[in-house]
């Protein structure tokens, strides 16, 4: 806190008689300035330590991502070799984008969309895949499109359009301090920590995802196919689960 | 306002350059200044001298007019009856009709007067008196007091015995009111508006108000001097002390009147002896110097320090700004540099990548040689099964054909 003291400089012309109140103010400001300097030095030191730790963690995360990908490849190859089938792991993470506007929305889907924090057109949120969430998505199928985002998509969304909820305000994630202050108690101190927690759906996914303000995406460059119909319909459409192909859409919306 | 009371000099009315004595300032003249109160009380008091006006009760309705109703191709407004004159058939009664009554006729029973609480009135007078003791306020009201020796201006009692206007004028001029009196004379002009035709032809500024204790001729001496007004100290009128609701009238006290102020109003502790149950107004704040209060040690010692505001600036995109990316993702620049190096020929990173690639290709070749050559490959086994079936079908067909030929023969 001391690093945020507002110190005002009092300009006293040479040789002039200094009024009593001005003198008192100058003394006070001097003392605060001293405290501030010390606090800033301590903060700088802490920051450097944090950054070093974050760097190590990031390298570990990158290795983790590479390893999991390599592991999957190995298992697929092994299965083929043995003439078995490899069952791809089910997706853990979903990214949902609201497709429908706000007019003429039935009450139940409207409520569910509110609960999912999709209150505006082209809002997006990260969700964990579990039974309750899947049931909720079933209720709002025609109004959203969703799928399984890749690591690249997750990174790009958070870096480009990541905003955090800080004392009920939508604050851009322009510094790791913001993240550290809000999520430090869950062991998340930087952007890469957030990305890791989201992508791997860690134990603090709920807190991290809630900290992230719903993503406000642009309309997709090149357009939708047809928002009235489902993605899986033969006549071409957009709503519903489009699994891996959400990444292509998000590439155009981000 | 709770400082030691200043001392006011009393000037000799015949020779105002000499002082005949001094007197402490009465507590009234140190009342808190309340322009809002004075304005409010003045507004209401000023309404009390009004004379009623209204239109005649029957104005516009003194005809036997009746509406012609529908069917006669005229508007339905009441019309004057009869014939033989222009007036017949003309519209009447409505405010839109010529010769009709006005909308919402003014009445004499309009509430002309206002009552003001006695205490309020007294407070207002005390306030106006206090304002008259302050040169900036008196000057702001427009009085010319540059030549006046002191405010409040207290003159010895002799002035109360003046009988001749000429003498009074001289006395005032000697006291420094010459400029003020001249201002009044110069300001005489014809009133703007209908008042000029209603026996209120001329207007002029107000000059000094002379407050006396004993009238031994002073009122008659002063009354013909333009702008000068007299008032007995027992009967002070807010309408004269704060004309138009603005306090700071230029007041000249006589010695007796000035002394009597203390007798009438008393102090905050004693109350006003001559006004039953009345005590002078108290200020809302004992110490009105906000800057001093806020900056005092008593207040500052319990405040937390002022903090800088959080500013987030413009959001930049880390995917585009390498600087920001390094800030958010420490070590990203060097990792990126290493990654880029691996595509530059001649660097050890490049060699490393090429080595890995070679190893991978070798592995792949080995695997293919092992599993994808020979007769046990997936395709070959598939085709074998197919060929087996094809051979079986061909054999069956041949057998059938042979049978047919036999049958034919």
Automatic annotation (TrEMBL), chain A:
<dbReference type="InterPro" id="IPR012988">
    <property type="entry name" value="Ribosomal_uL30_N_euk"/>
</dbReference>
<dbReference type="Pfam" id="PF08079">
    <property type="entry name" value="Ribosomal_L30_N"/>
</dbReference>
<keyword id="KW-0175">Coiled coil</keyword>
<keyword id="KW-0689">Ribosomal protein</keyword>
<dbReference type="Pfam" id="PF00327">
    <property type="entry name" value="Ribosomal_L30"/>
</dbReference>
<dbReference type="InterPro" id="IPR039699">
    <property type="entry name" value="Ribosomal_uL30"/>
</dbReference>
<dbReference type="InterPro" id="IPR035808">
    <property type="entry name" value="Ribosomal_uL30_euk_arc"/>
</dbReference>
<keyword id="KW-0687">Ribonucleoprotein</keyword>
<feature type="coiled-coil region">
    <location>
        <begin position="23"/>
        <end position="78"/>
    </location>
</feature>
<dbReference type="InterPro" id="IPR005998">
    <property type="entry name" value="Ribosomal_uL30_euk"/>
</dbReference>
<dbReference type="InterPro" id="IPR018038">
    <property type="entry name" value="Ribosomal_uL30_CS"/>
</dbReference>
<feature type="domain" description="Large ribosomal subunit protein uL30 N-terminal eukaryotes">
    <location>
        <begin position="18"/>
        <end position="89"/>
    </location>
</feature>
<comment type="similarity">
    <text>Belongs to the universal ribosomal protein uL30 family.</text>
</comment>
<feature type="domain" description="Large ribosomal subunit protein uL30-like ferredoxin-like fold">
    <location>
        <begin position="94"/>
        <end position="144"/>
    </location>
</feature>
<dbReference type="GO" id="GO:0005840">
    <property type="term" value="C:ribosome"/>
</dbReference>
<dbReference type="InterPro" id="IPR016082">
    <property type="entry name" value="Ribosomal_uL30_ferredoxin-like"/>
</dbReference>
<dbReference type="InterPro" id="IPR036919">
    <property type="entry name" value="Ribo_uL30_ferredoxin-like_sf"/>
</dbReference>
<protein>
    <recommendedName>
        <fullName>60S ribosomal protein L7</fullName>
    </recommendedName>
</protein>
TrEMBL record, chain B:
<feature type="region of interest" description="Disordered">
    <location>
        <begin position="390"/>
        <end position="409"/>
    </location>
</feature>
<protein>
    <recommendedName>
        <fullName>Large ribosomal subunit protein uL4 C-terminal domain-containing protein</fullName>
    </recommendedName>
</protein>
<dbReference type="InterPro" id="IPR025755">
    <property type="entry name" value="Ribos_uL4_C_dom"/>
</dbReference>
<comment type="similarity">
    <text>Belongs to the universal ribosomal protein uL4 family.</text>
</comment>
<dbReference type="InterPro" id="IPR002136">
    <property type="entry name" value="Ribosomal_uL4"/>
</dbReference>
<dbReference type="InterPro" id="IPR045240">
    <property type="entry name" value="Ribosomal_uL4_euk/arch"/>
</dbReference>
<dbReference type="Pfam" id="PF00573">
    <property type="entry name" value="Ribosomal_L4"/>
</dbReference>
<feature type="domain" description="Large ribosomal subunit protein uL4 C-terminal">
    <location>
        <begin position="276"/>
        <end position="345"/>
    </location>
</feature>
<dbReference type="Pfam" id="PF14374">
    <property type="entry name" value="Ribos_L4_asso_C"/>
</dbReference>
<keyword id="KW-0687">Ribonucleoprotein</keyword>
<dbReference type="InterPro" id="IPR023574">
    <property type="entry name" value="Ribosomal_uL4_dom_sf"/>
</dbReference>
<feature type="compositionally biased region" description="Basic and acidic residues">
    <location>
        <begin position="360"/>
        <end position="372"/>
    </location>
</feature>
<feature type="region of interest" description="Disordered">
    <location>
        <begin position="329"/>
        <end position="372"/>
    </location>
</feature>
<keyword id="KW-0689">Ribosomal protein</keyword>
């Amino acid at each position: 806190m001391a690093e945020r003291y507002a110190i005002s400089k009092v300009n006293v012309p040479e040789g002039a008689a200094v009024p009593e109140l001005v003198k008192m103010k100058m003394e006070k400001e001097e003392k605060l300035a001293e405290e501030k300097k010390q606090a800033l030095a301590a903060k700088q030191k802490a920051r450097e330590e944090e950054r070093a730790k974050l760097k190590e963690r990031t390298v570990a995360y990158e290795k983790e991502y590479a390893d999991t990908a390599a592991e999957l490849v190995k298992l697929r190859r092994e299965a083929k070799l043995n003439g078995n089938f490899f069952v791809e792991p089910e997706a853990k993470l979903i990214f949902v984008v609201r497709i429908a506007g706000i007019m003429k929305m039935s009450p139940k889907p409207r409520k569910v969309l509110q609960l999912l924090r999709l209150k505006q057109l082209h809002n997006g949120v990260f969700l964990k895949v579990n039974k309750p969430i899947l049931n909720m998505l079933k209720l709002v199928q025609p109004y959203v499109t969703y799928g399984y985002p890749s690591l690249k998509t997750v990174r790009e969304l958070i870096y480009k359009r990541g905003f955090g909820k800080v004392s009920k305000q939508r604050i851009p994630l322009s510094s790791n301090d913001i993240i550290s202050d809000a999520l430090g108690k869950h062991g998340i101190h930087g952007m890469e920590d957030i990305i890791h927690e989201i992508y791997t759906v860690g134990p603090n996914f709920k807190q991290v995802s809630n900290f992230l303000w719903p993503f406000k995406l642009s309309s997709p460059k090149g357009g939708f196919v047809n928002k009235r119909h489902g993605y899986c319909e033969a006549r071409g459409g957009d709503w519903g689960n489009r699994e891996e192909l959400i990444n292509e859409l998000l590439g155009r919306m981000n | 306002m709770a400082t030691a009371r200043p001392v006011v000099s009393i000037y000799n009315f015949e020779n105002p350059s000499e002082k005949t004595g001094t007197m402490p300032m009465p507590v009234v003249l140190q009342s808190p200044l309340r322009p809002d109160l004075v304005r409010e009380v003045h507004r209401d008091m000023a309404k009390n001298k009004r004379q009623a006006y209204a239109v005649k009760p029957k104005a516009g309705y003194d005809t036997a007019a009746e509406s012609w109703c529908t069917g006669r191709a005229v508007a339905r407004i009441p019309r004057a009856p009869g014939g033989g004159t222009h007036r017949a058939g003309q519209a009447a009664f409505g405010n839109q009709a010529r010769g009709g009554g006005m909308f919402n006729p003014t009445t004499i029973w309009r509430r002309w007067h206002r009552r003001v609480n006695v205490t309020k009135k007294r407070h207002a007078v005390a306030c106006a008196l206090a304002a008259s003791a302050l040169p900036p306020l008196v000057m702001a009201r427009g009085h010319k007091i540059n030549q006046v020796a002191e405010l409040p201006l207290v003159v010895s009692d002799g002035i109360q015995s003046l009988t001749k206007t000429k003498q009074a004028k001289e006395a005032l001029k000697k006291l420094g009111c010459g400029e003020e009196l001249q201002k009044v004379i110069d300001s005489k002009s014809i009133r703007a508006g209908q008042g000029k035709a209603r026996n209120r032809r001329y207007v002029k500024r107000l000059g000094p108000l002379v407050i006396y204790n004993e009238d031994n001729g002073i009122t008659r001496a002063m009354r013909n001097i333009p702008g000068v007004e007299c008032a007995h100290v027992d009967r002070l009128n807010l309408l004269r002390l704060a004309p138009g609701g603005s306090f700071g009238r230029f007041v000249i006290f006589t010695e007796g009147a000035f002394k009597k102020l203390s007798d009438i109003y008393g102090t905050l502790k004693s109350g006003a002896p001559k006004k039953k149950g009345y005590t002078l107004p108290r200020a809302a704040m004992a110490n009105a110097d906000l800057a001093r209060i806020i900056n005092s040690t008593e207040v500052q010692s319990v405040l937390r320090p002022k903090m800088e505001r959080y500013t987030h600036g413009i959001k930049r995109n880390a995917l585009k700004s390498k600087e920001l990316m390094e800030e958010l993702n420490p070590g990203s620049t060097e990792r990126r540099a290493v990654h880029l190096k691996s595509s530059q020929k001649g660097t050890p990173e490049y060699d490393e990548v090429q080595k890995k690639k070679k190893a991978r290709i070798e592995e792949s070749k080995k695997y293919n040689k092992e599993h994808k050559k020979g007769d046990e490959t997936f395709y070959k086994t598939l085709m074998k099964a197919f060929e087996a079936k094809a051979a079986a079908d061909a054999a069956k067909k041949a057998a059938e054909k042979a049978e047919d030929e036999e049958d034919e023969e």
